[in-house]
Amino acid sequence: MDKRSVFLLVVVVVVVALAGSVGAACPAGYHFVTYGTCIKLLPLTGPFHTTWEEANDACEKEGGQLISLDTPQKMEQFTAKVFELGSDFYGYPYWVGVSKTETGWRWLNGEELSLRSYMWLPNEPDKKYNFSHAQILSMDNNPRHYISSTDSGRGSACETSQI
Question: Distance (Å, rounded) from C-alpha 36 to C-alpha 19?
């Protein structure tokens, strides 16, 4: 092996080791996602829907807040993790940390969610009902998830940066 190949191999080993150690630093019940945060999915256990505020309160009790999926890469990595966690999680709708404001849609971290984003479910956000919050859901238990505007949800997708 030449020096460059050895160097690249060392870099890969270090990156993999660091990623493993960062993932291990997530709080109990949270799962590391490759974009550098920890997530926890809280499915609703009863027959009733929750409000966005109740969902965010549930996340705060778990040491986080509703997730901000402010880039397509975060959305893809989040949905890959949900799919990896198994069927108990990926077919479920979860509240996410996005709200309608006077100027558009914003994530809890302050970033905008464009109305033209492909992260929205087709024909969303639903202008007919004028919902103020949104959830993430999959279609037919497909690993691809979408953002959908709503006023009632079934679970919480939490994140924390406590890594």
Answer: 9
